[in-house]
Structure formats: C-alpha cells, structure tokens
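User: Some background: our group keeps a shared notebook of sequences we're curious about, and every so often someone picks one and asks for a predicted structure to add to the entry. Today it's my turn. The entry only has the sequence so far, pasted here. Could you supply the structure so I can complete it?
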Amino acid sequence: MIRVAVDLLGEGVPPESVLDALPAALDADPELVVTLVVPPGPTAEDLAGRGIVTGDRVHLVTAARGIPAGADAVRDVRARRDSGVRVAARLVRDGRADAMVSVAPPEAVAAAALFTFGLLPGATRASLAAVVDVGHAPGIVLCDAGASVDVAADDLAQFALAGAAYARVRAGSGEPRVGLLAARPALPDTMRRAAHGLLGTLGVDYVGQVDAGVLVDTGQAGTVTGKGPDVVVTDGFTGDVVLACLRAVRTAATTAFPETPTGLDPAWRSPAGADLQGGTIVLGVDGVAVRAGDPVGGPDDLSTGIPAALATAATVWRGGLVAQIRAELARLIARRRAIAGLSL
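Assistant: Of course. Here's the predicted structure to add to the notebook entry:
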C-alpha cells in the first residue's frame, strides 16, 4: 500500500478537472490510497457522482486556503499553516501519508517540503527535478529546475547526486550519466569551473559540461565522451529559464506541425505538454513531495497531470529515493571533512 496526500488547493485550478482524474489514478495502481486535501464543501458528494466512495481508498481532509504563485509564495507558505500544501506536508511528516502531491505553485511545494520535512544531512539547498522528454524513455532529469538561485559549486554537487539517484530510481537500474549545463567554452564562469572540478571527484558517471542542445535531441554529441547525459545539473534560475524556453519552442512546433507525434509514454505524460514527464519533484528533503503540473506557469491539464504525479510519487517512494539520496550525501559529507582535514 502507498498512501499519498494530494493537495488540490491550487490557484485557478478547476476542481472538476482534478476530481475527474482520480478514477484513472486509482485504477492504475490498486495499492494506492489517497487523502485529498480540499476546501470545505461538498467534495464527498462530487466524488460520489464520479463513482468514488470515501472511507476506503479515498479520504478527505480540509484546508482553509491555497497559496498563490508569485514572489510572496514562500513567505505565504511559512505564515499560512492552514494552507493546503502545508496540511499535505504535515500528513506526511506525521506518518499519515507516505508522500505528497500538490497542485500549488512549484515554489510553494518546495518551500512546504523544506519547512516541514527539513533537509537531509549534508544538503544545504532543496532542488526541483523535472524530466525532459527527448524522444524516448526515460528522458533527461534536469536539476535544479527552479528552486534555488545564487548557488555554489557544492550546491551543484548536491543536485548532481540527488538527480542521479532520482534518474536511477525512475529507470530501475544502471548508473546515470551526469552533465553540467554550461555555455560555450569561451564563456566560463568561476562557479561552473569549480563545479566541473568537483563533479569529477564524486564517484558519479560525470560526462563533463554540456550545452542546452542535449535537452532537445539526445542524438547530439554534447559531451566529451560522445554520449548524452541522463542528468543535467544547473542552478534553479537557469533551469527555470531553460524549461520556459523548451516549452515555448515545443508549443510553437506543435502549432506549426500539428500532425507530428510527441513520442511520449502516456504513463509519464505531463500536463505541461511534450517536454515534461511526471510532474516535478523536490529533492534534498527528508520526504517525497511532487508538484503536479507545469513548473513554469500556464494552463495545466490535470486530468493527466494528477495521475502522472501520483505515479512519480509512488515510484520514488517504493524505490527508496530518500534513503538513496541520504546515502549519496553521506559521501559528500565525507569528502568535505577530508578536504577540511577532519576525521571521518
């Protein structure tokens, strides 16, 4: 059994589309039990009209408000303990759920996970990971996809270890190749030079610096080895910009060439369109939190987004993702102590 708290209080999110998605999600995973965090109202009657009876695999918890997107979202999450995303996070913290899914803004989900679960030992930042579709499964993990700015090389090392663990759990086996997103060689910067040197010492399969082209076409020989990465590491500001650009380009391409197939596995299809799969997940925290929907804004088709995010939450919980990241960060802690001349 996998118990997931689902926060449905999103700004501008039509409740009908969310509730319509539940039967498919429950049918797809017979072991799934959900606790819906909803506003006060006739949700039980609405579910009954869709053939879902509360009390067995579906439970209801009320919350007073959602969190609007924007610059004040993190402050609002901290101040509003009665918000849906905070209520869902507490259900996980208190052992009433194994993981959470939310339709709140991505910055709100990341903040709620950070405030409620806390960082894993060795982590100094939380990050968001999104899976970019590149024409075949399992896609490329982009981390950080919009949680942290003004990062240091050590932060990027944390993102690399966490992103690689996520890619490993999604794929089920194998050692993911990790690349560092960078501009052309003529435009180096101090932080990425330091990160480049650090990533080569962490024991991951580091393939070097890559450009954004690898997120469009894995056939591109974007690394020094000629093999594309499974994980692309960057800071949250750059990751958010990259996702926005990818979405704009692919939306334009879909409009211009409507008959072109997306090539996506429907089980991982994201509500964000052809470039993201399974929602975005918060990494580096001591719990599982997945944001269902478009991480850079825009309309969300939650009839597919909720089942995709629930599938992601169930997959990583069953795969022991948090424990894997904890173990990876322990190696980073040991390296820090060695550099500082401290005993292990």
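Suggested note for the entry: The longest strand covers residues 273-283. Residues 129 and 143 are 5 Å apart (CA to CA).
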